[in-house]
Amino acid sequence: MSEITIKKENKQDLVDVAEEARGKSIAEVFMATNLAEVKSFGGLTIAENAKKVDLAIANVAETERIWNRSHSQWTWRHINLSYAAPMKNLRQVSAEMTRKREALEEAKWNYLKNEIKLKQKEERLAKEKDPLKSQLIEIDIAQLKSGMANGMKYVEGAMKDVLTLSNLYDDLKDKFSDYTEEDFEKEEARSHLKRSMVQCLRDVRQSGRITKGEQEYLEQIGVNPGKITLDMLAYLEYEQKIEDYTVKPMYEFLDDMCTKLLDQLQVDKVRMELQGLRDHYDSDALFLTDESTDNSEEN
Is 284 or 91 the better-scoring residue by pLDDT? Predict the structure, then answer.
């Protein structure tokens, strides 16, 4: 990723920018109304409570830019990327990045439109002769500026997520070399089998049996649920005897079962034959690089 240097003379904090854009505080507005001295909660007037609210908002404002993202970096890594198959997690990262990119794109165009609206209002204000209409335009300008500044905090959050997702992508990509959509298709059987087995293990731990929905998932991959239940019971018995509190033994079990079921028994291919289908992906429906196209032709 290339470094981009942006020279900035004004390093004013975004919270200050938003406050400045608002023009008037909540207290300043409500203190100037005919309801200012009306009795409110806590035995105070509306004006007095408005002052307390301004202080309360300012007190918490400094944390707004900490919690303005979808997930923490820890959550992205440990919770959201929950597949036991790295390539499936890579796909998840790509999908999340697409959503963030689209959100930032929309925010970008909205910001540009709002800048034009702001200029239009400022031009109208310069020409307006009616004092009351001028005040309304000034309020519109202040509201627009405030909304733009406040909206930027959420843009910042999306930016944080994008940078985190990019780092996750680099971490996962290191496990593969020049992968393609064809590689993803080849890995799908393993990805789904691991996903299914993890969910089945949870069922067996809880009730000693695989639920109907997970049995169907196994059958769709080509696995006999009754047979694999025996393997899982044997593994869980082994799991009870060892001292390892990590998920490493489970991952090793998943890899061993994938080797047995897919590489040796080829359960997915057998199921396709029974269904009258080819265990095949159509290369003309894949995005292939020039190199992968050449390799396909050679094979």
Answer: 91
